[in-house]
Amino acid sequence: MIPDTFVQGTLAREGESARLWLTGLPTLVEELMSRWECTPDGDVTHGRVGLIVPVQHARGAAVIKVSFPHPGNVHEPDALVAWDGRGAVRLYERADAQFAMLLERAHPTTLAEESDAIPSDAGRLCRRLAVPASPGLPRLRDRAGEWAAELRKDARELAHPLPDPVVDAAVAVIGELGRDQPDVLVHGDFHPSNILRSEREPWLAVDPKGLVGDPAYDAATFLKPRALALMKSGDLVKALQRELEVFADSAELDPERVRLWARLQLVQAAFHGRRHGFGRARSGPALDRLITFVDQLPVSWC
Hints:
Elements: H1 4-14, H2 19-35, E1 39-40, E2 45-46, E3 50-57, E4 60-67, H3 76-83, E5 91-95, E6 100-104, H4 111-114, H5 118-129, H6 144-157, H7 164-178, E7 184-186, E8 195-197, E9 203-205, E10 211-213, H8 215-229, H9 236-251, H10 255-276, H11 284-301
Antiparallel strand pairs: 1-3, 2-3, 3-4, 4-6, 5-6, 7-10, 8-9
Helix pairs in contact: 5-8, 5-9, 6-7, 7-10, 8-9, 8-10, 10-11
């Protein structure tokens, strides 16, 4: 029932501490199906941290999603409740202690795979998701001090080619934008693979972090994976700038705020890759190539 790729990926990311959770996962899914009166309806799939079990429910086609317990997944159901189907999959049931949800089923096709207008489609969806925040959700502004400390620590401890002015510019973004943000719900991990085709609406967001802050932060998050998709373009910086402008216009955002958030996130990505690897590569030559590529982006962007 549990795909081996999910098992191996979880163990590689979380270590042996995840083995007990993986062992009990089939029983947990069976309990949830019984509790929520579901029947199996297709092959089990998975994302990076969550198992996806297609089911039929009284409300129609749905999925049971069970995520590996992690602080970053705590507020996912809270965000889905706040949106109530507005640009995101609907939440039918939740079991917070088990990091499990019963969700409306969307198609597996992602925005990255199908759309010919990725930045404009994503920008319009970003605008729809920018609703007043619910009480109790974590604020991005509360992370500003941590971001600045981590950047300085990484710049000091890690061997890297980033010039001091590039790192200083990223720290300056925290001072300019990080501590003064609106009380707006943002996705927190808004990239094309977290936007799925749907029959109810053209595109629906999945896998939110449920954060409160500047929607331009989500726009910058969107641009990072787009850099990899556009890396073969003749002028990568020009292509990214064009995507930024289209996204910002569609989302009704200030493009300068998006550019500043992107400056910060690109430097953070360069350091994060050195410490933890990337989802695409955790070690070896593939990781080395990715780090070399990511290093070039903030220098060019700044």
